[in-house]
Design a protein that fits this description.
With about 150 residues, the chain is an alpha+beta fold. It folds into two domains: about 1-55 and about 120-150, Roll (SH3 type barrels), CATH 2.30.30; about 55-115, no CATH class. About 15% of the residues lie in helices and about 30% in strands. The chain has one helix at about 125-150, and strands spanning about 5-10, 25-30, 35-40, 40-45, 50-55, 60-65, 80, 90, 100, 105-110. The two termini are about 25 Å apart.
Length: about 150
Amino acid sequence: MNQVQQWARLRARTTCPLRRGAWYRVVQLTDAEAILDVNGRPLSVPRAFLQVLPIRPRMWSVVLRLRGAVTPPASWGPRYGVCPRCCARAQLHQGSATMRCPACGFAFVIGWSDSHWRVFELMSGSPAARAIGKAREAAVRLWSRAAPRRSG
């Protein structure tokens, strides 16, 4: 049986060598910690600091600027975006629904609210997490069986 790949990003404002708003592949997950793949190296992060999902979202993360932060430029305002593909930071324009990344050139929807992702969050060891995992696996199996018929 294939293991469901999981992705995590910082939820808490904390000192950590992770880029806020960027998604990282989860290598191992326990109730207490997550081991993340950060630039090809494993990094242990307290589980409580993270938002963990069974998929890698393909929309811009909206990040609130930390008080006194030097980067990104203050001219960007109180928040900035993080590209879901390359993790580059970019200035957000209020009211825009999509944006093209100045670094990688790909366009994505801007996730002004991430409340829709909360339904997918995995709470370690909870019955809901197992149910979500099973539902996702069933959906993937159904999709893979139906895919050949659609392309023919």
